[in-house]
Amino acid sequence: MSAAAASPALRPAPRWGGGGGAPSHRRLVEDHLASLPHGLPRLRNLQELHAQLLKQGLHRDTRTASKLIASYALLRRVPACRRVFSAAASGPHAAAATSNTTLLSNTLLRAYALNALPHAALAAFSAMPPRQRDTFTYSSLIKALSAAGAAAPVRAAHAHVAKLGAAEDTFIGNALIDAYSKTGAAPDARKVFDEMPERDVVSWNTAMAAMVRQGEVAGARKMFDEMPEKDTVSWNTMLDGYAKAGEAEEAFELFQTMPERNVVSWSTVVSAYCKKGDMDMARVIFDKMPTKNLVTWTIMVSACAQKGLVEEAGRLFTQMKEASVELDVAAVVSILAACAESGSLALGKRIHRHVRQRKLGRLTLVCNALMDMFCKCGCVNRADYIFDTEIVEKDSVSWNIIIGGFAMHGDGEKALDLFAQMKQQGFCPDAVTLINILSACTHMGLVEEGRRYFANMETDYGIRPQIEHYGCMVDLLGRGGLIEEAVDMIKSMPWEPNEVIWGSLLSACRLHKNVEYAELAVNELSKLQPSNAGNYAVLSNIYAEAGQWSDMAKARVQMKGTGSQKIAGSSWIELDEALHEFTVGDRKHPESDQISDMVDRLSSHVKHVGCVPAGHELIVQ
């Protein structure tokens, strides 16, 4: 750190210093500081403490104000951070010493960094006199700038500290490694690490985490083995690398050799096995954990819900509540996302009841997750009720979810009506909104309207069509029988068509019995998905419906030549918190005989009323 110390423009970070008040004043401040929690505080308790400090005139004390700002930052209350800073910055204690002002400004910078507000951080930094800036100032600024998602601002900050002679400071170097890796500039991160004259354990951990973030697990392990000293963070970072790569056995092997484990270590191994799909091993490790926290419980409940283990997820959720573990917003969103993915409606409803009781149910993030879950579980009316009555403050995500929900369920008219309301209320449509609108047009067969929305995307909303929008248009035109126009749309795309695009065309060809373009679609799909037998199965059916029996036989031969079988179609329903899956020809269900009898009765009834599916018998799918 000698470079930073030698530079007259950049001072080393100060120790926590007092404001120079009278002893009685200092004791009062210390008492209040002691009452501030070290972890995540409760907003109500923090506001009560803030009110006491205001009443006693202690809110202008620099050290106290800094603690308040840090606590409000953890709760994402940025406006409160600004108010505390403004009051303290104008007080007598802030002017007592430069170190006091630096401490206050640095804390505000860290608050902006924590809340991913790069522009606010840059403005706060610019407002600081150069003589008040220290190593903490620059490291906090660099961290905040990484939230912009681009490496250019980080490189500008790097050049600035290099001019001051502080680029070799270990603390700043660590911040640069982290920032570069988070903005996709892995070579820059590695260069900073390699050129550091002095590295501490944080430097090694940060560089290793950067490699893990890039998916370079082997390189991270090599660095881990080369570390001169390791701490628990080092071990946990390597465990996380294995977990993210799906290498659960390697993670467990490393876990067994750890000299010291904490709840993060245990949770990471549980997560690794959940990701692998080995829920039995995940549960064994989970049950052996000496202590569990909210993250651990969330991992297990979410994984069980995601894998369709609805009863197990429900039991774990009950045990979690019995252990007095309170869900936070992140945990709620994670579990609801898993419910949405697997269709676990019963658990989703329980989470809904729980958040209502805990007064979390009106928060925008939670309501958005609930609406998404209900839409994907087939309960779009419940999602609509939340949108209309429960959510206090809607954002563009809220509108996208509800519009997409109605579009997904075939109610294009409602989706388009909500789109009109969205614009009327001042929300600007984004790329996701337009995907949902084009999908709604597809479900309603509104070809002309879909053409108009697509053609005017850039002029009306400033949105350049992406491959997803082209995919929607291919689907819309194809379903409408405009196969040639759909093919022209594919050829006009500025990207190479993917399997989704060609798959949409193939589905349209099957619907309209178009052999010529079905062959084109399957030919292209064979290049993208050479082992997918399903594409040839669809082509074979199209040939059969066209009476081209020799071509059908060739398609069957090609299907066998892929070396794989077409995955049998399946569907499932949830009943009494249990998922029942049905596959074509599967007799494993304990009540398969009764189910088949019911299907036969339904088939007879459908035929009796004159609504016979063309060319198909009703089957359990």
From TrEMBL:
Residues 1-24 are annotated as: Disordered. Residues 1-15 have a biased composition (Low complexity). PPR repeats lie at residues 169-203, 231-265, 293-327, 395-429. This is Pentatricopeptide repeat-containing protein. InterPro entries: E_motif, PPR_At4g14850-like_plant, PPR_rpt, TPR-like_helical_dom_sf. It comes from Urochloa decumbens. Pfam families: E_motif (PF20431), PPR (PF01535), PPR_2 (PF13041). PANTHER family: PENTATRICOPEPTIDE REPEAT-CONTAINING PROTEIN (PTHR47926), REPEAT (TPR)-LIKE SUPERFAMILY PROTEIN, PUTATIVE-RELATED (PTHR47926:SF413). Keywords: Repeat, Transit peptide.
